[in-house]
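Typical record is below.
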Amino acid sequence: MRKSAILMLAVIACFGLVGCTDTHEPTSTGKTQEVMGTCPGCGMKAPLGTYCAKCKAVTVAEVKTFTCPTCKKEVKQGTWCAKHNCFRFENTEMKCPKSGAAVTKGAFCKKCSGYHGLPMVKYDAEKKVPVAKK
């Protein structure tokens, strides 16, 4: 377990967290282009971390299903959980940029007024749903 956690941290350090970093990558000409993702609900193609209001999900690099440790249900990565007000991601820990605390990617943060690792999504407290950040 400890070795796998160390390995995961090493991988994260080498590649960065998707959604926490710039979603642009250099092309062969030196210019940058946005890294595209897929909505786990409808299959829409858009830059990583883009909110899909139709599916209440964010675009992800790889659409995959896993067992949510909180809900104990099979869920697709990038989908929103209304009960816990978070986007579900498998085994992705990061640090909150405001508090420095260890958090899970996709969790709502009152201090940041948004979801960890998802800079293009904010929470509408009146409607009690996530929305695209403009």
